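pipeline/complex-builder :: batch 7 item 3
reading input block
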Amino acid sequence: MNNKKHNDLPDNSENIFSEGIHICHIYNDDNERARTMAKFFEKGLAEGNKILCIVDTASPSDIKGELVNLGVDANLLESDFVTLDNDSAYNPNGIFDPDSVLKNIGFFVNQARQNGYKGLHVSGDMAWVLRGKIRPRLLMEYETKVLDYQKLTPCTAICEYDARKFKGGLIMDILSVHPVILVRGQIVQNPYFISPKEFMKQYDARQVQ
Amino acid sequence: MMRGRYNKSKKVPSVDPQVLGKLLILQATLHTFPDSENLAEFLSRGLEEVPGTGFVMVQIFPFVKYPREKEILVNEICKLCGLGRTGETTNMFLLSPDRYQDHFCIHIKTMSATYGCFFFAKRDGETFKPYQPFLENLANTVALTLEIRNHESNLKRVNGELQHTKEGLEILVQERTKELTLKNQELQRWAHIFEHAEWGVAVSSADGKTFELMNPAFARMHGYTIDELKGQPLHIVSSPEIWRGVPINIDLDHEKGHHVWESIHIRKDGSRFPVQFDATTVRDELGKILYRVINVQDITARKQAEEELHESEERLRAVVQTANDAIITVNARGDIAAWNAAAETIFGFSADEILGRPVTQIMPEQFRTAHLHGSERALTSDERLVTGKTVEVAGLAKDGREFPMEMSFAEWRTQTGDFFTAIIRDTSERKQRENELQAIATLSAALRTAPTRAEMFPVIIGQLVVLLNCETISVEIIDPLTGDAVTEVAQGAWKPLMGTRQKSGTGINAIISRTRQPYYTNDLNNDPNFAHPELVSTGIHSGVGAPLIAQDQLIGFVWMGRKTDISKSEIRLLVAVADIAANAIHRATLHEQTRKDAANLAQAYDTTLEGWAHALELRDQETEGHTRRMVQMTVDLARAMGIGEEELEHVRRGVLLHDIGKMGIPDAILLKPGELTDEEWITMRKHPTYAHNMLSHIEYLKPALDIPHFHHEKWDGSGYPHGLKSEEIPLSARIFAIVDVWDAVQSDRPYKTGWPREKAIEYIRVQSGKHFDPYIVDVFLRLVDKGEI
């Protein structure tokens, strides 16, 4: 498989990333994921954004080292790039509360804005969901709230889901709440996307069924 | 094929672009799901969005996502679908006729494999129909993805297998390399051993006929170089007579695989030497002979050692068998394990009779318990009472005879156990000889104290009785004048022979005289030479006579007779006694003769002396009997002084000769009537010196010279001729001086009258300590008082 081809972000990514959108990245290859993130961060940094990288198990230095190896400016990484571990980001009070998470992200957005950044680019590795035994519905609730939140804040976010770990049905649900998806290196409008309210309605109905 | 069924000219129902977008998203995303179950679930959820669909079920082998309404196994579904007829609709599927019109099944398949299917239960066939081509395309994409994945998986598996195989091969190569390295090292060690072995090692061809390989020792052993031996036939090192038997051995060798024998090999120079030959046949797995390995050891030294050992054993065996002493070995159980020829002779048991029997069988009953206790001590402790020592014990012969024996005892140990070896000497004869020697010594000592034959005969007879246990004995001495044998001693049955004479040259004595050897008969009464038929009735039938030979001269015979047989040792003892007795009798005879001759000579001397004394009396005009009186008084006084009889004889002779020196005094002086002048006295006083000069060269008279020489010496030293004093004067002279004066003063002379006895006594007393020895005077006067003088 030619990973390089898939890692090159499309021409339309500039417009999409420049606005506060919610992207779903389904991957099954760690190198592909790293290259995609490197492009995402590089774009964000180039546009004057602050980068928040929510990491699962990797250390900040490892992440930075990997990004430098993938061509990201090390100086920018030193000044405009921050990492946050999953627990701090998603379980700031010891439990997963979507509102608290969004409030926490909002803090970073405001701080970036106050520091002169254009906005905040956030990447989140969602593998923690499986370890934290988070109820799928709560996850869906979080994802739908992100949509609403981003309408109000200059924050572009990529949610990274590992197809090797998540169930196919859950992946389809996740797709349904992300307006944009990154498929084979292409950022496309998601035809499966439905409004958060409609999604939750169908979701609940399906659970009942 | 499917597309062919949808003709472009036919009106195609309109499709929703949004749905197509969804199908594209599915198509673009499906590759991210590595797990088939997840993929099936993802597709099922995604395909539900296809319009006209009642429900959808995506099956990907081996995972099946079942519809919730009913579980249907994959194979059953496939039967319903009719695999191989993909794209066809059927009415056979009647899951829920009121809800679903029919179903549509698209196989997920490639040209080579089927991976599953999309199963749609259609709610609205018309609406659904326009999407079928897109669904088929999606199914093909899924199939290709799965096939690629399958290929990748297979490739990965193959790669894994290859990697595994490669790793396995690498491990195998490493192990093999290690094994070969070890084998190589081992081979090198074997090669080193092979090269430096002292044993000769060779490898022959499979047919066992030629040498293919050998080590230096093998070549050196046979005097060849390795190059000289390679390819040579085996028999080049084997003697022809031995080689003739080798093929047989080879056959045996081949059958057994390994064979060992001893042989003779030949060196290059033709010399031969013994070897131990060890051949091993090496075969392959099919039993085919590959080669033979031959080990050869030069066993010359071993053979020599074995030969020497054999010779040593033979020598030892010969020594043991020919030894005069019995050599007996007993094992720890006390059974006799070895028994030599001398043992047979001494004990009377043959080896066959006694081997394996308990050693107590050759011991007298009274010693057996002590022996058993001693043996037990020897086996259970370090106590050794007899080991290494020589002891005197008693043995028991087969005939029940006990005999003394001397035994040296040794203990030794082998792998088979402890053994005790005894060297035994029968000391019966030695004991007998010791007894004989003791008897002979006793006899000799006794005979030395018996100076005469009369005293000797009882001693001889007594010893013979003791030594020979014999009462009937006689001793006959040859009369030197007639040659007759005169029986001087006879006792027992032969006592009547006492004093009888047997003519020379008659009877058995004549034979003994001629042969000078003892004569023995155990049938005396029928012996034609027996000279005393009158003694037949005594019952004595055994008799032995031995010559009495002294200084090579036959002087007589000693005889003993007994009612039982007389042994050789007894005869030998009789001869030994006869030798001693003969010499003793001869010596006594000579002694008696000498004493007789000496007595006769002494008598002749004494007669001569008395004649001289009488002549002196006549010349000196002494009265008749003066000398005899002087002799008697002097002898009496000397005896009273404690002088022995033999010495008294010398005293007596000295008195007879006391004035012999006057023979040298001229008659004018000796016979002068008046007093002598001084010169005449000087001459007169020389007569003691004259006596000494006259008689000193006569050996017989030397002991008697003291009186003639010193009788004029005085106790106070005023006498003559030497002026000796006190005890310097010989005792006999001091004694005689008193007697001489005593007789002189009382004798009448031409020139005076003799004094009376009392005056003489007084004079003697007065001269005590002056002229005379006072002690002798005392003795003399006591005799006078007693009237003994």
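note: Chain A touches chain B through 22 residues (CB under 8 Å).
queue -> next item
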